[in-house]
Structures are given as C-alpha cells and as structure tokens.
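Re-run with default settings, no changes from the original entry. Doing this only to confirm the output is reproducible before filing.
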Amino acid sequence: MADKKVEAITSMEEDFAQWYTDVVVKADLTGYTSVKGFMVLKPAGYAIWELIQKQLDARFKETGVENVYLPMLIPEGLLQKEKDHVEGFAPEVAWVTHGGLNELQEKLCVRPTSETLFCDFYQKDITSYRDLPKVYNQWCSVVRWEKETRPFLRSREFLWQEGHTAHATAEEAEERTIQMLNVYADFCEQVLAIPVVKGQKTEKEKFAGAVSTYTIEALMHDGKALQSGTSHNFGDGFARAFGVQYADKDNQLKYVHQTSWGVTTRLIGAIIMVHGDDNGLKLPPMIAPTQVMIVPIQQKKEGVLEKAEELRERLSKVSRVKVDATDKSPGFKFAECEMRGIPVRVEIGPRDIENNQCVVVRRDTGEKISVSLDELEVTVEELLKTIQKDMLEAARAHRDSHTYTATTWEEFVETVNNKPGFIKAMWCGETECEENIKAETGASTRCMPFEQENLSDVCVCCGKPAKKMVYFGRAY
C-alpha cells in the first residue's frame, strides 16, 4: 500500500516527459476538461499560483506598479493597428463571431495579450506630461490556440500577469524594462529557488512589435531550457500606431515610450522540472502551500491526535502546517507527502510522546532527525530556511555542471547531441546563421547574456567575425 502512489510515476531517467505528466496528475495539480488544451487548476495547483501571485504582486508594488483590469475581448480593427504585432499572434488567435444568436458586425478576438487594449486605453487617458508615467499591471488569463499542449508549459488558456507601462522618455522605458526583468530574476532565485540567466533576445526571437526583448532563462532537470519571464521595450512604435501622445512641458506633442512584461503559470512547470524527483514534487518552502505536514503514528491510541493538533497549533506561528488525520496507513501518508512536495514532515507517535520528541524529515534530502518537542518551532523555522537555500544551491550546481562551451561547429553539434544543457558559443549576429543552427541541431538562441565572454573571435556556425556570446539550447 505504502508505495502505490510512487509506483505510478515513470522514472525521470526513463522518460522525462511521461514523468512530468505523472507528477502533475498524481500530485493532483490539474485536471483535464471537455475542451482540448484547457486545464482545471485543482486546489493543490492553484494554491502554488496564489503564492506566486501574492509574493510577486508585493514586489511589483514596491516599484510603484498599480493593478488594473481591462476587457478580455479585442475588436479586430484594434488588433490590426500594429502590423508586426498582429502577424506575430495571428495563428494563435481565438475569435468570437456571435453575440447570442446574432452575428457580430466586427469579430472580437479573445486576448492573446493586451498591448492593443492598453494602447487604446492610454490614447484616451494620457494627454499631458503630468499623466506620466503610467505603471500598470493586470492579473488575468489569456487564450492562445496552441497546436501541442502540456499542463502548465503550454496550454490554450493560461493565467499570467501582464505589466504595461507608458513613459515620457526612451531612457525611462528602458530603465523600467530592465528593472522588471531584475524583479523576475530575483523572485525566481529567492522564492522559487530557480537560478536564471538574464539577457536579451535576438531580433528573430524578440516579441512581435518590440524594439527589444529581455528574458530570464532557466535550465530544467533534463537539460532543456525554459523561458521563464520576459520584459519588452516597445519604444514609441505602438504609440505611433495608436496615436498615444502627450503635451510636454514645452507644449509640444510627443509620443510615449512603452514597455510590457509578464510571467505565467508556466513557472509551476519550471518548479516541477527543476526540483522534482522520482518520488514526485519537491517544493521550495517559500512557494509550498503546506510547508509542514504532521503525520500521527498509531493515531487511534489515546492522546496521539490531540498531541498532533497541539503541535499544529504551535507550528502555525512559524509555518503553513496541517495534520494528516485521515485513516490511510502511515506509509501511504509518507509517500503522499513526498508526492506533493511538502518540504517538512513531522512524525509523532505514542513512544515519541513518552520521550518528549518527534521525528522531522526533510523532503529535499530525505534526512531524518529526532527533535525535542521543546525545540520544535525553532528547529522547523530554521530548517525551512535551510531547505530553501539548499534547493537553490542544488539547482545552481545542476545548471552550472550542465552549461558547456563550444568554439567549433563540430564541438557544438557533438555537445547538443550528447550533453543536454546550455551551450555558450559565439555568434555573428546574422539571423540566417541562427536559423541554420536551429535547423541542423534543434538548438535555439536562448539569450545574449548581459555578462558577455569572449570565447573566440569567430561565429561557431559560419566562421565570420563574432559579435555576441549567446546561450543556446533545446527548449520547451
């Protein structure tokens, strides 16, 4: 009975994609629906998103961000105003053609992203330099009609936040773009225990309609990259297309400079794939809905459940804690705790009570320690901090040991095919080379990191003079 839950998981070494699906299902994070590609976020999955939302929202507000909410439907004419933007999203747009029984005069698209709506809104809301900057964000869902879907990583509807800001100058817009990227990077590392590489996307990979796109890239356990957050500087391109102007101090009409930035429920996929193991999820304490699970042993014996409840009351002052008082066997409860990724398990039985102690088990390392009940709160509080730090260090060690350097084409191909991970290589800056690399190896440019290194003087693909050091990788 004890191992049933775990037996149902495919080993990650055997089939990583199947392991991922098994964990999502067995940890009860999502459910399937009657519409292909749309998922139910179950309580265990949604609770992780709530913690992401709460902690990220607080960080946004510290930088002056205000939350708003705009409609989910965009008139076709509005979407058409920015050419590059509409071309970028056209294949993924879902359309509303009828209102009740009547055909609409103009089709409405279900938002794949909200740049056009914000521009329309700003065009009416901004008239003077006194109205700037506008630093807005909305938490909502978007719909993109993806061909292939996978829970959290790529679904047709997903939850996210999208920040949209308007500024008087190009410098302010660029500053905000980088500032938000840094907020994301710090959040991923400090809260999700996921180390990231920060940098700029190439022309080919940037957001449709942006002047420049910046990204944070994370490495999953299987050596594939995952774009985990992006921040875009739009310059005044959208403002010109939508007529978003303001009267400056010199009474001249000028176009605003805009940014947008977002992260999605894809971050939950990243948490699973960076930290998980063959026993299931492994949640960093700061993002774990339940940080401590108390498992009473021989709970029908007198005083055991009462003691477990007393410990819950005490630990609730330093953690998010629950008691598993169900009638399942202790072995099954242990396996379930591991499957759900609960950072700390506390075991308490009649003999422990006699000895004024309990057993505390770490999910990340499996280490068991006997702890005096008198010291339980202090021990658990410290342990949660230690686990958070250790999980980031373990993820960073994994990333660094799976980051390779290639200076020749042969070395690049050999590394892509035999050593999954990030590959650092020099690039000439030509889109043609970028496309050739992807066609030949399946590896794409992940980013041009802010911290540049000179690995050689020539492009790894064509041998022409190199302009940038780039992180390459196969990606989700």
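The CA atoms of residues 247 and 253 lie 5 Å apart. The mean pLDDT is 96.
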